[in-house]
Amino acid sequence: MQKILFVCIGNICRSPLAEGIMQKLITEKDLKLQVDSAGTAKFHVGEAPDARTILNAKNHDINITALRARQFSEKDFDEFDTIYVMDNSNMTNVLALAKNEIQSQKVELFLNALHPNKQMEVPDPYFGGDEGFEDVFNLVYSACEKIAENHN
Fold this sequence. Notes:
Structural class: alpha/beta
Radius of gyration: 14 Å
Largest sheet: 4 strands, parallel
CATH topology: Rossmann fold
Strand order of the largest sheet: 2-1-3-4
CATH superfamily: Response regulator
Oligomer: single chain
CATH class: Alpha Beta
CATH architecture: 3-Layer(aba) Sandwich
């Protein structure tokens, strides 16, 4: 069974949203995948996702209230087959912990799943207005659908 990890900065906006969307797609499409999410920073360890992310997900029938933030660690390289990072900053932080080329090759920008080799980033909605959360949802959902399609 393939195991995928989604990573953003604090694990309260983008990565838990991706985890929740993928959980829904795994159930709907009976995919043989396991997913989790983490953050490169420890600011929010143990906290629920951002209230705006929870509300936005809920508006799309996705419940992420039970998720809790955790920090990315070196052992995640051993645990997961693919590590999707939301932006270049997270890419740099995750790759800094890789011990070898095999681990480094597991790390990929999340939107490359949707737009191969374009090196596009998922914007962080945390400091923006509420409308940014809907834009991020649509972007993350589209990428998750593509990942699901590739694992069907």
